[in-house]
Design a protein that fits this description.
- The protein has no helices and 11 strands.
- The chain is mainly β.
Length: 111
């Protein structure tokens, strides 16, 4: 059983930055595509950023140019660098790989 654990969420002012991490119990990110999702209250879960095995990335239009997905070489940890955060980025953020999901980390953007 693979476990994914997110960290790095918190409260930040508009325009600020956060870096989310997703630690896997095995090096699952090395050989699989992965992604970050988010779910705001009353809304459906949406894909924020994806990263393929070959290194290609895709982003939701709302975060392009502000968010960056990456992973470490060992394949144990995935990251989401979030810059110029906006109140509409407030949500619970989840990492996912294959059918595995983390428990989520809350990101709140507010002054």
């Amino acid at each position: 059983q693979v476990q994914l654990v997110e960290s790095g969420g918190g409260l930040v002012q508009p325009g600020g930055s956060l870096r989310l991490s997703c630690a896997a119990s095995v090096a699952i990110f090395r050989f699989n595509a992965m992604g970050w999702y988010r779910q705001a209250p009353g809304k459906q879960r949406e894909l924020v950023a994806g990263l393929t095995i070959g290194g290609s990335t895709n982003y939701a239009d709302s975060v392009k140019g502000r968010f960056t997905i990456s992973r470490d070489n060992a394949g144990n940890t995935m990251y989401l660098q979030m810059n110029n955060l906006k109140p509409e980025d407030t949500a619970v953020y989840y990492c996912s790989c294959r059918h595995y999901w983390g428990q989520g980390t809350q990101v709140t953007v507010s002054s």
